[in-house]
Amino acid sequence: MAAIEPWFVKGELMLSCNCTVFCPCVISLGKHPPTEGYCQTWGGVRIDSGKYGKVDLSGLNMGLIIEIPGQMSRGKWTAGVYISEEADIYQVKALTKIMSGKARGTTHVLSILVAQFLGVHQKPITYEVDGDVRRFVIPKVIDGEIVPIPGSKPGEHTTIENSQYWISPQIIVAKANRSKFRAFGRNWDFQGRSAEICALDWKGP
Fold it and tell me: How does pLDDT run across 22-42, given as a tens digit for each residue?
């Protein structure tokens, strides 16, 4: 594959973190610290359609772990990536470039802010949608279930729009019914804490 290929990823992301509801990072752009003074988070990605050059990424799932010591914009992030076990070597290389920020475009910010990369690991990954509920499982690593917070209008969720959050232009505010992460010497439980759901439309370079 060429050093930088045209790419895109469309799908959905669910994220669970240690903030009380709701995480200020979505609207603060790192100008204010997380509610606990530091950030611990995991995320799940469902790729409905995607390509990196000629490499098809459709149908794959990913998991993310991010740890931030203070304000987002100050960097020194620690990050790691999980990729579906069925992904072939070309798909793994493509997603590694995208999620490390080396493919530029939407995720380029990761190449600037991440100081320690915990690597890429292939595991069985399940991303389920059950009505409004999202469930994400990597056996023995992540066990999560998040649900949107209802808005004032019946049947509609609380959302944040028109922010400068790089992940997505619209965020569904949610909370974790269940949220456990165990790996890399970490043992997190974010039940009842902040979560979010958003459509992904990432691209580059």
Answer: 888 887 666 778 899 999 999
Cα-only R_g, the chain: 16
Cβ neighbours for 78, distance < 8 A, ≥ 6 positions apart: 65, 66, 67, 68, 114, 115, 116, 117, 118
DSSP string, the chain: --SS--EEEEEEEEEEESSSSS-THHHHTTSS--TTSSEEEEEEEEEEEEEETTEE-TT-EEEEEEEESS-GGG--EEEEEEEETT--HHHHHHHHHHHTTTT-GGGGHHHHHEEEEEEEEEE--EEEEETTEEEEEETTTEEEEEEEPB-SSTT-B-EEES---SS-SEEEEEEEEEEEEEETTEEEE-TTSEEEEEEEEEEE-
Of 153, 95, 144, nearest to 121 by C-alpha is 95
Number of CB atoms found within 10 A of residue 199's CB: 15
Q: Which residues contact 170 (CB under 8 A, 6 or more apart)?
A: 159, 160, 161, 198, 199
Sequence ranges of the domains in the chain: 7-204
Structure tokens given for 2: 């060429």
User: Is this structure's pTM higher than 0.90?
Assistant: yes
